[in-house]
Amino acid sequence: MKKSYKIEVDCANCANKMEQAAKKTPGVKDATVNFMTLKMSVEFEDGADPRSVMQDVLKNCKKVEDDCEIFL
Amino acid sequence: MNKKQKKMLARILIAAAMMIALHFARRAFGDRAQEPLWFFLYLIPYLTVGWDILLKAAKGIKNKQVFDENFLMAVATVGAIAIALINRSGDYTEAIAVMLFYQVGELFQSYAVGKSRKNISALMDIRPDYANVEIDGELAQVDPDEVGIGTLIVVKPGEKIPIDGVVAEGVSTLDTSALTGESVPREVRPGDEVISGCINQSGLLRLRTTREFGESTVSKILDMVENATSRKSRSEAFISRFARIYTPAVCACALALAVLPPLYLLLRGAAPGWGDWIYRALTFLVISCPCALVISIPLSFFAGIGGASREGVLVKGSNYLEALSKVQTVAFDKTGTMTKGVFEVNGIHHSSMDNAKLLELAAHAEIFSTHPIARSIRKAYLEGMVFRGGGEPAEKAESGGRRLEEERVADVREIGGNGIVAEVDGKQVAAGNTKLMDSLGVEYIDCHHVGTIVHVAVDGAYAGHLLISDVVKPTAGEAIRALRAAGVARTVMLTGDAKKVGEAVAAEIGIDEVRAELLPGDKVAAVEELLAKKPERAVLAFVGDGINDAPVLTRADLGIAMGAFGSDAAIEAADVVLMDDDPKKIALAVRIAKKCMRIVYENIWFAIGVKLVCLVLGAAGVANMWLAIFADVGVMVLAVLNAIRALFTKELR
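YS: structure for the whole thing
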């Protein structure tokens, strides 16, 4: 399953960091952050609950870049 | 400016004011206060403007992602303050200024990116917010997502069409410019298909929806544009790889610059001059900050894709924009791409029966086919076209009374690329090209006219042929010339049509080479052959009208689909989608891509060049930290401004 979320982040490098953090989150198969359109698209693993996984993604992103926001 | 940017601006202004005030205060009262006091006073503007950088650098270290520009800036400024303390020079202004200019650069960059983001999303502002549905005689605005297929919706003048559909009632003109870049409005009347995203200009329209919102053109296009920049080009990949090795490398160089020369001097018995060399190393760090590249390259692509979409050219990713700029060979489909794809029966020759009867049989044999040629035969029959004895079309006769009757047709077999065999009124009717006749063992009479010839055999005996011709698009010749001017070396036309027809069209519009009489599978083979022959770095593009060209579009280096209105296959298979069917747009797309790539390379060379010069100057001790930060921020500002240029496509038209 693939979902796309609106995000807020200031710099291209921070967006890359968010992408890395999201990719490492359990339950996430793949994630891409598009800095230009401010969108994060996340592909979830089968059986993962997007809601709870996204909470973890947000937490991990905040850890590497506290200036970011994901609108869930 | 948003809230965050305003806050940043305030911090910069306050810190700058404090720094200047302190500078003069110190001149006036420098001798009256102790050094530590000045240190703490200077610390206030430094922290005001730079606390978040220090924090981010610390966080980076904690998260084991040490080397980024925050780290570079933190080390450089803290180091500069430390040197000032140790040397007792009391010159803290330098560290504050470096931080200040760095933040100015960041602010400018975030402002510029935000601005161009807004510009581009305004271009793509085709997402409808609501649909008007009539419920119990009252109009209600509902979420387009909730409208089912077949619902009657109302579009008032000035509103966007929310969902693809067919006009049920009303006559109006549509502004399609948001989708196609075409400024001439399109007229619609009942029965016409309309595409979501167009703006209704004059009359009230009632539409019956033919798709759900999620499947509608507007959703598909938005989806595509939003995902476009996530496919990275080679240059972008290069930059992110470059940044990954580059930052640790310059840090190592800076460390070496700080330690090795003093040690060497020490061994020679000279004064090591630690302070001087560490200062040079810090300058080196400030210069080396890679922000100009990291931000300007993706921004150029983003702006390029945005500018192209304003012209009705949708590019699915930065990598495709890059490929587009390197196109050397272009292969075209003929029908629908270089020609209008509107066929007309222009003659019936050598018929062994009444012309009208032959047309009737052929029309019935082709009753279920969606091929444009079949459509034209049916149209000719339904409109009651009359052909003179010589086979030339005369004026239309009465059109009433003619119908296609399905019950008269049985056992239809479509033979891909060859034609159709069907049973009509109990007779076996074969309609198709010469290959079909050969395979049936029917002797045929060739036609000396240029056009598509549909031979008809009834019960195994030759019954004559229909001459069908297509019209070349008025801009096709100009399109080929424009492509040549844009650097395309070779143009090839691939067509399933007869050789004579293909060659006539190619000669008319100036295409170099024709491969004719290709079956759908042969087109893939032809493209593969062209791919094998071209130089390795050159790009082969295939242009098709997207309905049946999907496999070829996928096989070519770059698939360009034309006139993608409502054609799902095209949007999915192609890498570049031209919204309207004007072949001139191909050359325009190439020009936009070339301009964008030129900007990308300008920025890469400019930024790396200036950095290298400054790095050498810094290492040699010629450049101080002021020059370093000016070089860094200056290069970034220029690179960002240059990147935004990719958005402007007017002069390329």
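YS: worth flagging: The two ends of chain B are 32 Å apart (CA to CA).
IM: good catch. Also Chain B touches chain A at residues 4, 59, 63, 65, 68-69, 106, 109-110, 113, 117, 121, 226-227, 229-230, 240, 294-295, 298-299, 302 (CB under 8 Å).
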